[in-house]
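Weekly modeling sync, notes
Attendees: AB, CL, MP (scribe)

Item 1: holo prediction request
CL wants a bound-state model with iron/sulfur cluster before deciding which constructs to order. AB pointed out that an apo prediction alone won't tell us much about the pocket. Agreed to run with the ligand included and paste results into these notes for async review.

Input as submitted:
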Amino acid sequence: MSKKTYYNAEDLNKFGNISEFSPELGKKFFDYYGEVFKEGELTEREKALIALAVSHTVQCPYCIDAYTSGSLEKGATEGQMMEAVHIAAAIRGGASLVHGVQMMNKTKELLM
Amino acid sequence: MTSATLKRRQHLLSYATKQLDFLNQPKENGEQFTSFESKLNETGLDPLKPTKIDTFQINVGYMCNLTCGHCHVDAGPDRKEIMTRETMQECIDSIKDTDISTVDLTGGAPEMNPDFRWFVEELSKIDKKVIVRSNLTIILANPKYNDLPEFFAKHKVEVVCSMPHFTRLRTDSQRGDGVFDKSITALKMLNEEGYGKEGTGLMLHLVHNPSGAFMPASQESLQKEFKKKLFDTFGIVFNDLFAITNLPISRYLDYLINSGNYENYMQKLIDSYNPDAAANVMCRNTISISWDGYLYDCDFNQMLEMKLKDENLQHIRNFDLEALEAREILVDQHCYGCTAGSGSSCGGATS
Ligand code: SF4
Ligand code: SF4
């Protein structure tokens, strides 16, 4: 078994194996997962792009791999995919910056 | 993009047997990919048999003005295999008095065969529906081809043309620089002849195939998007969009191997095996004829030189429809490309 890195690209294909140690919960999760990504009020492509953005937020290499392919397979363009990543970046950046207000409040409280 | 074909470069993958050997090799970890035949068997389709032969797909030659990166024919300007008028005549004689309704002309660029127009004229005389698979750019490649849209319209030829994507980047990365712009011009010329327009009866279909190592998106949603984008930006109209999966053979196989995507792509096709698509594979209603008059189950098997099992049926001069309909179709690992997801054929999705 390779011990070179904690993350192995091949492990993505083994995601399904998580059911091995807990079949019932595994099944519940994958059934749910499958339902979530089905075309609904959002299209399959919109869902793939959201998943891509979230993957960048949680910084999961498996998810980024899966939803890069997934977005392409749902017909997304490079431009759409990068815009999705920028959404993730904007929310992350914004999440830091909006706390600037808290910093300002505290500063004002402390300063004369 | 290289401009020489695999054959010209004497590349290993220009040999059919080497491709088949490769497709049947174990993975890097030593495991074997599930065999296509065993999948068919699980779904009760082994041996695969024709339903009814309705279409003659004739490959009139491997010469092409382009050298697309994904080409399963390994076509290009340096290919010299060209169907003669005698072989075309044999095809006409074979199907004239049969129920075979459609003749689907492919290549290479079929228009480059010097007898192409003669062939189309003769086929329309015997009342067969004629489809031409055009790469569009050929129409602009030389002044002698500029009137092709008019010629197609005159003979009510159905035009099925390659247009992998509505963005320049994706189209040119697969087919070569400048192909997108030329294709747009050619589509406008076809529209001017009435192609793709309601009420003209002149059918214009586009073929989308992924520019990379992934499966096509849903044909329905792509069609909607292509229609909107091509109309809004260029005023172009067309009838249907066919979404086609790239099969792992020839130059596309070379691309998969070189880009390190081969195993994942193959596994993806296998995991996406769809029994409904398997029941509707195009080899069940189509026969493929090569430039030199040999018969194959499909254009892919032709490129893999998988001649029909029964030696007496192998050539058009021994054409026997009944016997052909009773034959066993030869399958191998590349067939997974036809049965993955929504399925794939020369007419797009199959399920
Ligand atoms: S894919 Fe079509 S247009 Fe491109 S090289 Fe092959 S035959 Fe020619
Ligand atoms: S590759 Fe040819 S023989 Fe195989 S399933 Fe597809 S059409 Fe049939």
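Recorded for review: Chain A touches chain B through eleven residues (CB under 8 Å).
Action items: CL to compare against the apo run; MP to circulate these notes.
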